[in-house]
Design a protein that fits this description.
Elements lengths: L2 H19 L6 H20 L7 H7 L6 H14 L3 H14 L8 H13 L3 H14 L4 H17 L6 H10 L11 H14 L2 H27 L4
Helix pairs in contact: 1-2, 4-6, 5-6, 6-7, 6-8, 7-8, 8-10, 10-11
Length: 231
């Protein structure tokens, strides 16, 4: 692999980290880091037919030295913060072409896309996109959660939109005895927002009690781990 390009990428991502920390504001570093990463991948594909096809494989083969997946997560978060929603959509399309994706990682780019569509006031398109995502990956917790958020945003922009199907979606995946865990906490958060949006206090109380219990367990776990530290 092109070590010069990787060094350039690392230097740019360091600037991005400083930008996030407010130490050295520099919006251009994000664009340049992303473009450098694209160049690395395209050059790698030209030179080696076995170049990683999946994003996580690129991190694996470089021993996580460049932490590419974390960079892209920060990149999407920062583009959203800067209001660069069209750039998010374009980047997702490019990443779909650059890498192979499956149910284990597609949320890394589909979540930012669904959010960007909603923030561009393309509410119906966002809902249709999330619905297709769920159709392609049935029972996928990320797709379900994204669809709930998209429906809520559509309703908030147009109160004539019905949330009945969204309530049924929550009922399908959160039963009265369903526990909030690491695997479904994002769904509980979305369900709580839905209950608040429709003014269903009973539903919100039920959801929030389990969400709060989960958060309390996490806090106890962190406190226990802190107590085990040797200093």
């Amino acid at each position: 692999m092109n070590n010069k390009k990787w060094k350039q990428f690392d230097a740019l991502t360091e600037q991005c980290e400083e930008d996030m920390a407010g130490m050295n504001p520099n919006k251009s570093c994000w664009k340049n880091a992303y473009l450098t990463l694209k160049d690395i991948v395209k050059e790698g594909r030209r030179q080696n037919p076995d170049f990683p096809k999946k994003l996580y494989e690129l991190d694996d083969i470089t021993d996580f030295e460049h932490d590419i997946q974390s960079f892209l997560e920060d990149y999407f978060d920062t583009m959203e913060e800067y209001g660069k929603y069209e750039i998010i959509l374009r980047t997702v399309d490019e990443l779909l072409e650059l890498f192979e994706w499956d149910k284990s990682n597609i949320a890394d780019i589909y979540f930012p896309k669904s959010t960007a569509l909603s923030l561009l006031n393309r509410q119906k398109e966002a809902v249709e996109f999330c619905q297709k995502w769920l159709n392609d990956y049935p029972d996928n917790i990320f797709a379900i959660t994204a669809l709930i958020h998209a429906m809520i945003k559509w309703y908030n922009s147009d109160n004539s939109v019905s949330l009945d199907s969204t309530k049924e979606l929550v009922k399908k995946y959160i039963h009265p005895d369903t526990e909030c865990t690491d695997e479904n906490d994002i769904l509980f958060i979305a369900a709580s927002l839905l209950a608040e949006t429709i003014g269903n206090e009973k539903m919100q109380k039920s959801i929030d009690s389990r969400l709060n219990a989960y958060e309390a367990r996490l806090e106890d776990l962190f406190m226990y781990e802190d107590d085990q530290l040797p200093f």
